[in-house]
Specification:
Number of strands: 7
Strand content: 15-25%
Radius of gyration: 16 Å
CATH class of the largest domain: Alpha Beta
CATH superfamily of the largest domain: HAD superfamily/HAD-like
Distance between the termini: 9 Å
Largest sheet: 7 strands, mixed
C-alpha cells in the first residue's frame, strides 16, 4: 500500500510565518525553511523575534484564521485522497493547524507542538521526532507501506529522497539547482499526474 506524504506550507497553504510577517509588519519573520535548513536555528530565531516585538500565539492565530488554502489545493487533495491514503507531514504546530485543516477537509496531519506560557508568549517547541519528515516516512516503511512524497523546502528533502517517488513542488530556484535529480512541478495538475504515474 502506498501513502502519499505532503508538506503543508508552500504546497497546500501559504507560508504561515510569511503571512504573519506581512500582517504584523515584522520583516524578520519572512525567513522560512526555504532559506534556513536548520529548523532548530530557525525556530530559535523566530521565538527571539516574537519576544522582541511582544507578539505571541494569539496574534499569530488571528492571522492564520484569515489564511486560505492555495487556489486548487483542496480539489487536488480531494482527488488525491480518492487514489491513495494521504498524510500531511509538517514542521508546523498543532496550535496553528486547526482552521487550515477545516478548510482542507480535515486531512490527516502529523506536526509538532509549541510551548506557550499562560500569557500567550511562545517560549519553545517540541518536535515529534527529528528529522521529523524523514523519520516519519522511514517509520511508515518499517510497517509495510511505500511512500510518495512532495514538498518545497530543505526540510522536505529527506522524505522525498527516502520515498519510492518524490517531487519538488513550487520550490526555490536554488533548491532545484542543488537537486537536479528531482522532478519539480509548479501546478497541481502536473503533480497529480506525476503521483498517479508513480502509484
Amino acid at each position: 500500500m502506498i501513502i502519499t506524504c505532503l508538506d503543508l506550507e508552500g504546497v497546500l497553504v501559504p507560508e504561515i510565518w510569511v503571512a504573519f510577517a506581512e500582517k504584523s509588519g515584522i520583516e524578520e519573520l519572512k525567513k522560512t525553511t526555504r532559506d534556513e535548513p536548520d529548523y532548530d536555528k530557525l525556530m530559535a530565531y523566530r521565538i527571539a523575534v516574537l519576544k522582541k516585538y511582544h507578539m505571541g500565539l494569539k496574534e499569530i492565530q488571528k492571522t492564520i484564521e484569515e489564511i486560505e488554502p492555495m487556489e486548487g489545493a483542496k480539489a487536488f487533495l480531494d482527488e488525491l485522497r480518492t487514489l491513495c491514503q494521504v498524510i500531511i507531514i509538517s514542521d508546523t504546530f498543532t496550535q496553528f493547524t486547526e482552521p487550515l485543516m477545516k478548510k482542507l477537509g480535515y486531512p490527516t496531519i502529523f506536526c509538532n507542538t509549541l510551548e506557550v506560557a499562560d500569557d500567550g508568549e511562545i517560549t519553545g517547541f517540541r518536535m515529534r521526532c527529528t528529522p521529523s519528515k524523514l523519520k516519519t516516512v522511514e517509520a511508515l516503511h518499517s510497517i509495510g507501506f511505500e511512500t510518495i512524497a512532495s514538498g518545497d523546502s530543505y526540510n522536505d528533502l529527506g522524505m522525498i529522497g527516502a520515498s519510492k517517488a518524490g517531487f519538488l513542488f513550487r520550490s526555490t530556484e536554488e533548491i532545484r539547482k542543488e537537486h537536479p535529480e528531482l522532478k519539480a512541478y509548479e501546478t497541481y495538475e502536473d503533480l497529480l499526474n506525476a503521483i498517479k504515474a508513480a502509484l
